[in-house]
Write a structure and sequence with these properties.
This protein has a domain of 257 residues: Tachylectin-2, Chain A (5 Propeller), CATH 2.115.10. Helix content is 14%, strand content 27%. The protein has 11 helices and 29 strands. Strands 7, 8, 9, 10 and 13 form a 5-stranded antiparallel beta sheet that branches.
């Protein structure tokens, strides 16, 4: 059975939630809307720039592969800048001109937490005294409210600076005020991957079902990462299947989105190491530590790991900084250390993720399995800010320079996940419960006046030594926000709070000018056509279910414009269906044959999902048989095969040549994945060859190049022009990735131009491409939701 990794291809879920931006340079802009209408203009321009899970996951995979082949060095040629946007409750309300919760959200739910915001809930989280909202730099519930959070991440400082400047200009033009800007960056040199106290960070992130490939021998864990549990996707993405007992009743607008917590946590690094040294002296006087114990030894027990990331439970005496396996070790639990004699019960590691090793108050109850705690996991995406300081080595920053962690996490339920971990685990002295004396609070993050340091005396009895720690991490800003799906973003840009598949179902949507990123001047370009449903594809009735994009469409070779209709195969996921589209102004579509598994057609057996199909130009229906190249991705690598399909009722398919990698295609050198081909309309079988625009995703970003394929047995291919950006296509303004093109059957080579429906994400538009030099393209109509396709629509 093929592994379900469908979430890796999601163009609805924003990047960073599941894939993670993984950039060295980060800037977060906290924004206030001065004018709702202008804010919607701003969002309309921003939405096409937002990174999707599919784009980020593809880039990260390519980047990791390049690092492996180079012996661990970062590839210099792979660069990308990612943007993600989220909104507070007030921000959603202002953009949509309606209350996101017409009825009060359930009491005690994450929806209630989101609506109230972090400032109102600060007391319950330990954000009091110096940590209280009145001392925050942003999100304090008074003064300048935060309506949106824009995260920018880039590989280089220069790329980040350019992106931030562009967003500053765009915001100012739409009266969007930057309330606060927080820059952050990965620490350099030996500190890389560590936070300011000097400990490796981000080791214990969970895997996600439907996104991470499971280990064949340990299917509950991520392949290549022993001990990293795969958690149900619904714990991080609303509307996906969650762990048992988790909240499920999300509003439609929340589907494919994630709730975000952003916190600015200031770190007192000199204070940390000073207190560790003082507490170590106390433990030595109490004879509660080995003679050779150092400040590093005690600090590792406070965290639960050594500086390198090696877990204390596996390396009790010393760090192993040169062991990369130890540095990423997650293959452990605490079943054999229920008393916390090796890794203290109050250590940061155990307080935030007890794993298998959490015991109920009743000691006769066996420890909980790690699976029972899946509903408490969060996805962390933190980055240090400020110049480093470390007493163990020289640092560029002074002891009083501002530094800390820009903490960001994603979850489906803020109350059940983030708040529960913070308030019920970290800030609760009596956790784990039922101990005497109580373990104490998490001293790494919170003020911990009394923690119980357990050790064994010389006679083997358990010894309890109290320790007290002042607070050296302080909250200096906090925001609760929601990161919507791409469909919801587009709906918000039109003033409506809708979920995926609903974007085109609101009143007046088809007449909205400016939809799709500043394209208001494009309406009316179709020769007097108004943007009605019938003239955008003939669909007059909205379907019952949410729309999802198709992967490719292929004309049935002997059913092109027969009886005024043309038939196409529509490939989506592991299935395909047959549809027809009528000639005429309405272009009415209907389903000819419903969904069929790809494997039912012999030529497609073994294919998990078709990326694109390319007809062999000189082998279309000779002798009643048509030949195609089929590009598909299996095991994370794209391959292609040659197939044939016979004319006639059955359309029998045969695999003519087995799968090969892309190497034989010289015109596709350097391409990670071919997404689709668009034939150059007046350059088909001209002078013995055919020309195509090849759209491909390489390094996580889609570009296009011009290639040609010759007639004849060899079908020699040539790269005619190297890669260019999609921005060269005026008709694709605002599109970050094209799924496929569908020729408008009765508008090919008519009046010197050809028209196509372009599918991108869950939207489509209609464009024209002229014959002749330059092949000028033009937006005819759209974009619109795929839900406008009535009967042939792909439904979940």
């Amino acid at each position: 059975m093929a592994t379900d990794l469908r979430l890796r291809d999601s163009e609805e879920i924003q990047g960073d939630v599941l894939a993670g931006f993984r950039k060295d340079n980060v800037s977060v802009l906290f924004l206030k809307f001065e004018d709702a209408a202008r804010a919607r203009d701003w969002l309309r321009q921003l939405a096409p720039q937002i990174a999707t899970t599919r784009a980020v996951a593809a880039f990260n995979e390519a980047f990791s592969e390049a690092r492996r082949t180079s012996g661990g060095d970062d590839p210099k040629t792979l660069r990308a800048t990612w943007l993600g946007v989220s909104f507070t409750y007030e921000g959603l309300r202002m953009l949509s001109t309606t209350d996101p919760f017409p009825q009060p959200p359930p009491v005690g739910s994450g929806l209630e937490a989101f609506k109230e915001g972090s400032a109102r809930r600060a007391g319950a989280l330990g954000d009091t005294g110096e940590n209280s909202p009145e001392n925050w730099l942003f999100g304090n519930g008074g003064g300048q409210p935060v309506h949106a959070v824009l995260k920018l991440s880039a590989d280089t400082e220069q790329d980040l600076a350019a992106a931030v400047e562009a967003q500053r200009i765009a915001a100012a033009a739409c009266r969007v005020l930057i309330v606060y800007q927080q820059n952050a960056r990965t620490l350099l040199g030996s500190r890389r991957g560590k936070e300011h106290f000097g400990f490796k960070d981000g080791i214990s992130e969970p895997g996600v079902r439907g996104f991470d490939r499971p280990d064949p021998n340990r299917p509950g864990e991520v392949e290549g990462h022993p001990g990293t549990r795969i958690v149900p996707a619904g714990e991080f993405v609303c509307g996906e299947e969650p762990a048992p007992g988790s909240f499920r009743d999300f509003p439609d607008w929340a589907r494919a989105g994630s709730f975000q917590v952003v916190r600015r946590l200031a770190q007192d690094v000199p204070g940390w190491w000073s207190q560790v040294a003082v507490r170590l002296k106390e433990l030595r006087l109490a004879k509660a530590v080995p003679d050779g114990a150092t400040t590093e030894w005690l600090a590792a027990r406070m965290v639960g790991r050594w500086r390198s990331g090696a877990p204390v439970c596996h390396f009790q005496d010393r760090d192993v900084p040169n062991d990369p396996g130890a540095a990423s070790d997650n293959d452990f639990d605490f079943r054999d250390d229920l008393e916390g004699l090796v890794t203290p019960l109050w250590s940061h590691l155990r307080k935030t993720s007890p794993r298998a090793g959490l015991q109920a108050p009743d000691p006769s109850h066996p420890p909980f399995d790690a699976e029972e705690l899946d509903g408490r996991r969060i996805m962390r995406r933190g980055t240090p800010y400020g110049a480093p300081f470390d007493p163990a080595s020289e640092g560029p920053g002074g002891p009083d320079d501002p530094r800390g962690l820009l903490f960001i996490c994603y979850q489906a339920d803020i109350q059940r996940q983030f708040e529960f971990i913070q308030a019920d685990w970290m800030d609760q002295p009596d956790f784990p419960p039922g101990r005497n004396p109580v373990p104490g609070k998490d001293p790494v993050v919170l003020e911990a006046p009394d923690v119980d340091f357990e050790s064994r005396d010389s006679d083997g009895t358990v010894k309890h030594t109290p320790l007290s720690f002042a607070q050296f991490v302080r909250t200096t800003g906090s925001v609760y926000a929601f990161m919507p799906s791409l469909s919801t973003l587009r709906g918000l840009a039109d003033g409506r709070l809708v979920g995926p598949g609903q974007a085109a179902q609101g009143g007046g949507q088809s007449g909205q000018t400016g939809q799709g990123g500043g394209q208001s001047g494009q309406t009316g370009q179709s020769g007097g056509q108004s943007q009605t449903q019938s003239q955008q594809g003939g669909q007059t009735t909205a379907p019952a279910g949410p729309a999802y994009p198709c992967d490719d469409l292929l004309a049935v070779p002997d059913q092109w414009r027969r009886g005024g209709r043309s038939q196409f195969w529509v490939c989506h996921g592991d299935r395909y269906r047959k549809i027809s589209v009528a000639d005429g102004a309405a272009h009415t579509d209907r389903t000819v044959k419903g969904d069929t598994p790809l494997g039912d057609l012999p030529c497609f057996r073994g294919i998990e999902r078709i990326d694109c199909l390319l007809p062999m130009p000189d082998l279309q229906n000779p002798g009643g048989k048509s030949w195609y190249w089929v590009f598909h991705t299996t095991g994370g690598r794209q391959q292609y095969r040659a197939v044939s399909i016979t004319a006639g009722t059955g359309h029998t398919g045969t695999a003519e040549r087995p799968d090969r990698d892309l190497t034989p295609w010289r015109s596709l050198a350097g391409v990670d994945r071919v997404d689709c081909f668009l034939p150059v309309p007046d350059q088909q079988r001209t002078g013995g060859k055919s020309w195509y625009w090849a759209f491909h995703t390489t390094g996580g970003r889609q570009r296009y190049r011009l290639v040609s394929v010759a007639d004849g047995a060899a079908h020699t291919d040539v790269l005619e022009r190297s890669d260019r950006e999609l921005s060269q296509w005026g008709s694709l303004n605002g599109v970050t990735a094209v799924n496929c093109f569908l020729p408008v059957p009765d508008a090919q080579r008519t009046g010197g131009k050809s028209e196509y429906w372009v599918f991108h994400g869950d939207s489509y538009r209609r464009i024209s491409v002229a014959d002749g030099s330059g092949h000028p393209d033009r937006l005819v109509s759209g974009p619109r939701s795929c839900s406008a396709w009535n009967l042939s629509l792909i439904h979940k």
